[in-house]
């Protein structure tokens, strides 16, 4: 594999992330993030932009710089480590001009957006505890824990939102040794009940065809059940989440067309490349199924990045992301989508946390599943997860 592919990923990540991170580090995000008057009044867009962007960058920030062979990437990583720590500190510092809304009124049992993005912020710390926690000054650590406490006064909706409070609690547990195991256990057990088959969960009781299994559910189920394993009583949650994640990764990879496009399905489609969060997450933790070699996943995800980044109108005149899937398509955005929301697209970049020597990066270019099948190659048939487990004598 040419080093140019990893360089292309780094350049794409930098182009997307820099306007958010540089302004948040300098305390100017509130002045520059393009929000309309209603979005500014609501105030949650800033934490959305920061929480989502840093979560996508976190594994790359945590990667030992000695493993990075390209000198330009190494220098950029050093710059970003400092900027991201400052951005995260400012977001939690009540005296900062970029202090974010964590709980606007400190209302108990309120359901509001900060639950979501505090969880993405917490997930970044889970992925990069050395760079995004240990290297922070004590004041920043204190502010972050206070911010989490304010968020946890609120309650999540009975849907994928359960994973957000569970993620924050898992992060608090990792950082302090104290976490609400009931919140975590409840989130995991409800998703265990909401499993619909063949690697997919309902978003609550009902199944809806969208990318929320990838945006949120599958990566967070795996992460929380792993990080908080000591305070979660039932190992079945971990087993289920891994089996489902691996099958869902197959489904996601099979959906990537040779030109990098993918099916236009469901709400929040303006998260763009974030539709492949679960696939990138599995690659990062070396949990891809045997049917998907890491270098094949790299080839598939690179096609998605190339296609998405080629769209005119993806960025505004100041370099911030617009609302859309392929360029600027504002009619695709639900009422809850603002400029900060769409930075979930950075989640595709999680495999940058893998060493350039890892098979994901070092393996040769190969065809994606779509390309193999539609070029006439005789591939192994695709069967459901439950059928496989039945054939092997295992039950899910």
Automatic annotation (TrEMBL):
This is DUF2264 domain-containing protein. Residues 6-365 form the DUF2264 domain. Pfam families: DUF2264. It comes from the Bacteria.
């Amino acid at each position: 594999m040419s080093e140019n592919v990893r360089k292309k990923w780094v350049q794409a990540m930098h182009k997307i992330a820099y306007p958010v991170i540089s302004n948040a580090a300098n305390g100017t995000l509130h002045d520059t993030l393009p929000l309309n008057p209603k979005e500014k009044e609501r105030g949650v867009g800033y934490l959305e932009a920061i929480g989502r962007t840093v979560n996508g960058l976190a594994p790359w920030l945590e990667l030992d710089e000695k493993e990075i062979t390209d000198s330009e990437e190494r220098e950029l990583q050093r710059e970003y480590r400092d900027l991201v720590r400052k951005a995260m500190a400012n977001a939690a510092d009540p005296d900062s001009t970029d202090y974010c809304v964590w709980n606007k009124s400190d209302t108990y049992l309120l359901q509001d957006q900060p639950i979501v993005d505090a969880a993405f912020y917490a997930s970044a710390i889970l992925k990069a505890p050395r760079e995004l926690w240990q290297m922070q000054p004590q004041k920043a650590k204190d502010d972050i824990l206070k911010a989490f406490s304010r968020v946890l006064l609120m309650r999540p909706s009975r849907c994928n939102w359960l994973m957000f409070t569970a993620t924050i609690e898992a992060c608090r547990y990792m950082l302090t040794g104290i976490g609400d195991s009931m919140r975590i256990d409840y989130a995991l057990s409800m998703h265990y009940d909401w499993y619909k088959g063949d690697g997919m969960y309902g978003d609550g009781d009902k199944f809806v065809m969208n990318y929320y299994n990838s945006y949120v559910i599958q990566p967070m189920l795996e992460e929380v059940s792993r990080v908080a394993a000591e305070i979660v009583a039932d190992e079945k949650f971990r087993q289920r989440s891994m089996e489902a994640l691996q099958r869902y990764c197959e489904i996601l990879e099979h959906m990537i067309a040779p030109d990098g496009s993918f099916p236009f399905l469901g709400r929040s489609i303006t998260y763009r490349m974030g539709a492949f969060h679960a696939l990138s997450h599995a690659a990062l933790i070396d949990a891809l199924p045997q049917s998907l070699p890491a270098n094949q996943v790299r080839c598939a995800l690179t096609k998605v990045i190339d296609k998405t980044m080629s769209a005119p109108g993806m960025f505004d005149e100041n370099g911030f992301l617009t609302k859309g899937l392929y360029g600027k398509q504002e009619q695709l955005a639900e009422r809850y989508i603002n400029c900060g929301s769409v930075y979930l697209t950075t989640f595709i970049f999680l495999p940058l946390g893998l060493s350039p020597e890892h098979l994901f990066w070092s393996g040769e270019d190969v065809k994606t599943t779509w390309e193999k099948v539609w070029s006439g190659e005789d591939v192994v048939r695709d069967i459901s997860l439950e059928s496989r487990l039945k054939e092997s004598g295992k039950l899910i």
